[in-house]
Write a structure and sequence with these properties.
Blueprint (H helix, E strand, L loop, with lengths): L7 H6 L4 H16 L6 E5 L7 H5 L7 E6 L2 H12 L5 E5 L27 E6 L8 H14 E13 L2 H8 L9 E3 L2 E3 L9 E3 L1 H8 L4 E7 L14 E7 L3
Parallel strand pairs: 1-2, 1-4, 2-3, 4-5, 5-8
Antiparallel strand pairs: 5-10, 6-7, 7-8, 9-10
Length: about 240
């Protein structure tokens, strides 16, 4: 990985543990997404390049990386420090409104079209994005992922699945997140800022995924709620396209 790291305030903006989380997810991409060095990758919510930096030493010249984010400062840093030395890396700023991260945004996440052509990616990933989106926003993002993903492509994303075990852990005081409120079928942590942390039960997510040509291939549960057997902090879903 490059020695060039973002300034501390940008590292904290995406949650800290910058290098270790990037390295961890590169392994998860290989293990569960079967990511190959020559593939074309889309990072939905690329932040300040926490995933892009380790990918810059993994993807070959035949592969490519594209990422977009609502943080203009994060995108500018990634352009200047990653894309500037890697011709196959591209970062785009998208001005989507988010009351926490981009309160002056002019676009809505339910009408935003990913700025990429159909079936252009082998691998699409979202780390801690669906944890901040409401139901109709997730439904729209899934339809866009379906559109830009190749027929044999893979999508990997993290989220909070509020299942029976998670609810029992929450009630037992083991969980890092409580999800005391509901908005529709979304479990939320903060009534004032619903997007701060959002979870869903598995049948709800399956219903949203089934509206597309995607299907769940694998579910790996996370440690966020206090369970002792887990893959990473958040729950991990791996999707493929349904065979036509």
């Amino acid at each position: 990985m490059s020695n060039q790291l973002p300034p501390e305030h940008l590292q904290q903006f995406v949650g800290g543990n910058f290098e270790s989380v990037g390295k961890e997810f590169l392994q998860l991409f290989q293990q569960y997404g079967h990511l190959k060095p020559n593939e074309h990758v889309l990072d939905v919510g690329s932040g300040v390049g926490r995933m892009a930096l380790p990918l810059s030493t993994y993807l070959s010249d035949e592969g490519s990386y594209k990422g977009f984010d609502i943080s203009k400062e994060g995108v500018e840093w990634a352009k200047n420090n990653i894309a500037a030395t890697h011709n196959n890396f591209q970062f785009d700023h998208v001005d989507i409104y988010n009351h926490l991260y981009n309160p002056n945004g002019t676009l809505t996440s339910t009408s935003f079209t990913f700025p990429y052509s159909d079936q252009s990616f082998n691998f699409v990933f979202l780390t801690s994005i669906f944890t901040h989106l409401m139901e109709e926003e997730i439904a729209h993002y899934l339809s866009e992922i379906d559109r830009v993903l190749k027929e044999d492509g893979t999508c990997l994303f993290t989220m909070f699945i509020v299942n029976k075990e998670a609810q029992e852990c929450i009630q037992a005081g083991k969980s890092t997140i409580q999800f005391p409120f509901q908005v529709g079928e979304a479990y939320i942590e903060n009534e004032t800022y619903p997007n701060a942390a959002v979870g869903y039960d598995l049948p709800k997510m399956e219903g949203l995924i089934n509206q597309t040509n995607l299907e769940i291939k694998e579910l790996k549960l996370g440690s966020w709620c206090g369970r002792t057997t887990y893959t990473t902090y958040q729950d991990l879903l791996i999707l493929n396209k349904k065979k036509q």
